[in-house]
Amino acid sequence: MTKNKENIKKRKETTTVVVDHDDIINNEEEQDRMDDESTDPFQKIEKLITQFNEEDIARKQSRQQGRLYRFFQNKWVKLIRKIVEAAIWVSLSIYVGIKTEFKDVVLYSDQINRLWFNIGLFGLVGFSVLFFYSCYLFYFVSEEPADWEKTHPRVVPIATVFLCIFSIGVIVGCWPVWGFYTPFILVLYLAGVAGLIELVSWGELAKRVQTENDKQQEIEENEQQPQKEQKKKQ
């Protein structure tokens, strides 16, 4: 009888130990869950970001599967579209120049503030020299890409200053003639000049479109690579 009592006591002790051990495990799990809940906002943000990225990739893939999207992503379609846009800007600037009699006003009008207008011309000459050297003369001499932000990064701030001087000088100088419409006319003329440069250098434009197309294809391949790896694993 005494042996049976001792065995029963040992069993009770072992069960209490097991129960205590289970309680410790449960307490640790609750503590981990509480820790997870404490960091739950950050996890929710990460989940939302990953979900948004997945949805964005799915939308891009659905676009890529459409015929219209593939048509507009063709490099020749891009080139023709850019040429048409440039021709439209040039045509609009010529039309506005004829309607506003831009040449006669700039050369002969007494209403223009000549001091500010000449300051604007100084800024235009400085910007044109830097732009021509960085994008065209340097390209023909060294045969490197005509991206002046990469080849001449120090020239860009100076050219920006010259462009600001040109804009302020011309707007203030021509304000007595066209008034509130002066900034819009100036922007239209600048867009026309930029379009004319693109039309003249259409070969360089074709190269730029080709590089953009290559970059787009590389991005699409990088986006599709994880899905291909998942399919291989499955």
TrEMBL record:
Keywords: Membrane, Transmembrane, Transmembrane helix. The keyword Transmembrane applies. The keyword Zinc does not apply. The chain crosses the membrane at residues 79-98, 118-142, 154-178, 184-205. It holds the Pfam family TMEM128. InterPro entries: TMEM128. Residues 213-234 are annotated as: Disordered. It comes from the Eukaryota. PANTHER family: TRANSMEMBRANE PROTEIN 128 (PTHR31134:SF1). This is Transmembrane protein.
